Amino acid sequence: MKQNNVHAPEQVTRGLPDTKKKLRDIPNVKFSAVDEQKYKLLSFGWDTVQESFDLVINEKWLKTLEEKKVEAQENGRNGNPVLIEVAGECMAVMPSAWRGYSFLIQSDDLQVGIGKRDWGASVKYLSAGLWEHGIDALREKARIILAEICEKPKKDYWEKVSRCDFCFDIYSPAFSKEMKPAIMEGVCSLSRVKERANFRTEGGQIYMNGTRIETLTIGSKANLQVEVYDKSLEIRQKSQKKWFYEIWGEAYETDVWRVEIRFSGKFLKNRGIISWEEVADNLEYLLTEALISRRISIPEKDKNRSRWAIHPLWSLIYNKYAGTEMLKLGRRFTMRRDELAENIRQQIAGSLRCVTVLASGGFFDFELLEEELSLVMDTLKNDKKHRKKVKRAAERYQFIDEAA
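RE: above sequence
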């Protein structure tokens, strides 16, 4: 299998605007020197990516999948998958589906969830397929499958990223010795970010300073999560993905640590990122924010831990693949145009009611309301930044779905 590298930005194909976003500088941080004899980067790349599509299953495949799902449910005591060919691809129809979806079909490379509503399709690109074929090849394959089983998209905007995980595998016996409870003292993140560690004993023995940490997690999957865990142990005891040895160039059975950065759709949307092209174009900035906002540092006497030097493991990744800027916050809305317009009207009505009562000294009158509306119009007309604000609003709402 080939190593999965950071992909070059892809060409925008659906009339999207410039995918580069507005940036903000990172806070002042110190970086530790990295001894690359102690920290050896083996591989890096996408480990899981999921996209959602505003597509509807066609009648032919609706009937076919309903029949195959029933067959799968009746196949054996607890149900077993039924094989089917979709656009030349051998896939399995599962006896159950993801929450909110009617059908789930899958291969070794990807899973496809199909529902009977708006945004009725979702594709998860799996680790094995990503590392062997790369994200571009899997996305192309997914679109061929979706073109077979779904109606044509009816809108320009019909794709969005709902999750993507990027990872780095690092060989470091030195870091293995550090993965004890004391390392939690160096975790530096926002105060509201959750931190946790899973502990284990090594060979039935406990280290002098406590048990060894198997997994250290900073943050939540619902937003942004960075997790460092013993990948060599996970392969031996759980996944059996020994094909990673080929990617790494050697059968490292111990001391390989994975730093996995998990971006949720919510996190991406809050930075104005919706499409895969935008993820690819802005990966450097996304990695920068993740590594800065959820990091391990080296404890110092300074009581302000934000001034502590970043751990060499983090510094190794940061120096090679991150930068000095992060994306500014600011989301673009994707709900239906009529629904959003009605929500804003309700907000305006509530605000006008309040300002009328406030201006009158405690009561509401429609004549006073007309006076306030006139003042609002004057405010709009006299705003020197009006054109600039209109342009910003147009960009913010460019992906609003038109009413059916």
